[in-house]
Amino acid sequence: MNRIRGMEDNKGILKIEEEDMENIIRDYFVKLFESKGVGNTNYLISGVNRNITENMNQLLVANYKEFFNKIISKTIANKFQKALDYCIDPAQSAIVPGRLITDNVLLAYEILHSMRNKRMGKKGLMALKIDMSKTYDRVEWDFLKQMMARMGFDESWIQLIMKCISTVSYSAVLNGTPWKVFTPGRDLCQGDPLSPFLFLICSEGLSTLLRLASEEGILRGVKSSRRSPQITHLLFADDCVLFGEATKKGTKIFEKILKEYEVCSGQCINYRKSTVFFSSNTT
């Protein structure tokens, strides 16, 4: 492995001492994982459906003695999967009971095909592929906790999950040597079996804001066929595709929703990697 012999700090000054380079790396991740707090979540949380039943909670908080010889996080992840099958919006989200995430890919292509071939009136349609920057790293724990509580998860289960994600610590490794340990204030550990499910719970916050806007009549989605329901968005891990009218008003609505989701969840939209597809000229 090639050794790192120099590194620039945030002022562009080259540092060659290992301690200085370690401080640059450590400061970057400390800042990334530092909690920025959550904004006013009252509106978002009020729209989240409470779908976790008492029977589901009893399964989730069952005694774990029989699993002592297994990897406990995988056991929790399996239970989470069964619960989430019933509480995530099946029409829009990445988790669809009995279906694969690739089904969303096929649906997205079907919608885009329909948009290309549809006869337009004065208003066109648009699809926005949104990329989340540092997806797992920016998840605010307090927002995740609020979402789980609103969905109806048992308090003891929520406490268990919060212990799993908040007791982690990190250390920067430079040229094979681990340095000072630090504790994050937000973040979901990538590679952990729980993290994809926890992230989808956070993403349900974005689905909620889009659904509320649709129910209030200020946002219109796109149909893949004449009889299909309107689709306002599809989720794909750290990507999201939004569908709506290609108007200045439609763009402003999406912008407002994304900003509110950013403030509540800690997520940050990477606009450089986001792309827009228009089926006709904007109005």
From TrEMBL:
Q: Keyword set for this entry?
A: Nucleotidyltransferase, RNA-directed DNA polymerase, Transferase
PROSITE patterns xrefs? RT_POL
The Swiss-Prot or TrEMBL record annotates one GO molecular function as: RNA-directed DNA polymerase activity
Instruction: List the CDD domains.
Output: RT_nLTR_like
> The Reverse transcriptase domain covers which part of the protein?
1-283
Its recorded name reads Reverse transcriptase
